Amino acid sequence: MDIGKRMKELRVFYGLTQQELADRAELTKGFISQLERNQNTPSVSTLLDIIQCLGTTPAEFFAEPKPEQIVFKKEDYFEKINDEQHTLIEWIIPNAQKNSMEPIRLTLQPGGISEELLPHEGEEFGYVLKGTIKLIFGTQKYTLHTGESFAFPSTKRHHLENPGRHDAVVLWITTPPSF
């Protein structure tokens, strides 16, 4: 473990300057700088003091962070089939509701209609991967084909329809999450 790097990460995370951390630990700014660059090694008691000043415990300080999943495969997806609306929604980033954006892959069978979304704060983006869709945004209607996209602030009621004879597939991203 890179102790200096970990110290700096926590210091920056808590919004402390090197001087502020040094003052709290009764050390010099230069010594903190040396520790963060691994140019000096603190005694065990000094390290424990610094860890305490950083508002953490030795166990948390030395714990290796669990790597965040950044690649998602088909088996990670969650899907919902709505036979009544002739749609398949695939959440291609599981648990995206905790993020600031939520991407889904929406498949609309012929005659399929997405759920109508009410006005809300945020923005939406969509890219037609396959087929033809109709975007209804307030009272306006737009027809989009494979390779075309849409983007708008979510200030009006809106939904998608498939007026074609074949499945339409759309990558649809909302911020904040709303699906």
Automatic annotation (TrEMBL):
Pfam families per UniProt: Cupin_2, HTH_3
PROSITE patterns: HTH_CROC1 (PS50943)
Domain HTH cro/C1-type positions: 7-61
GO molecular function terms noted in the UniProt entry: DNA binding; DNA-binding transcription factor activity
Oxidoreductase recorded as keyword: no
InterPro entries registered for this protein in UniProt: Cro/C1-type_HTH, Cupin_2, Lambda_DNA-bd_dom_sf, RmlC-like_jellyroll, RmlC_Cupin_sf, TransReg_Diox_bact_type
Protein name in the entry: Cupin domain-containing protein
Organism: Roseburia zhanii
CDD domains: cupin_XRE_C, HTH_XRE
Record-level GO cellular component terms: cytosol
Keyword vocabulary terms for this entry: DNA-binding
SMART domains in the cross-refs: HTH_XRE
